[in-house]
Amino acid sequence: MTQRIDEIGFGGKRLKQDKNAFCYGIDAVLLADFCEAGDGEKILDLCTGNGVIPVILSALSRPSEIVGIDFQEAAVLLAEENAALNGLDNLRFICADIAEDKGLPLDASFDLVSCNPPYFEKGRGLVSSASAKLVARHETTASLEDFVVAAAAALKNGGRFCMVHRPSRLADIMETVRKHGLEPKRLRMVAPYIKEAPNILLIECIKGAGKELKILPELVVRTEDGQFTEEIKRIYAG
Amino acid sequence: MTQRIDEIGFGGKRLKQDKNAFCYGIDAVLLADFCEAGDGEKILDLCTGNGVIPVILSALSRPSEIVGIDFQEAAVLLAEENAALNGLDNLRFICADIAEDKGLPLDASFDLVSCNPPYFEKGRGLVSSASAKLVARHETTASLEDFVVAAAAALKNGGRFCMVHRPSRLADIMETVRKHGLEPKRLRMVAPYIKEAPNILLIECIKGAGKELKILPELVVRTEDGQFTEEIKRIYAG
Question: Can you give the pLDDT at residue A125?
Answer without folding.
Answer: 47
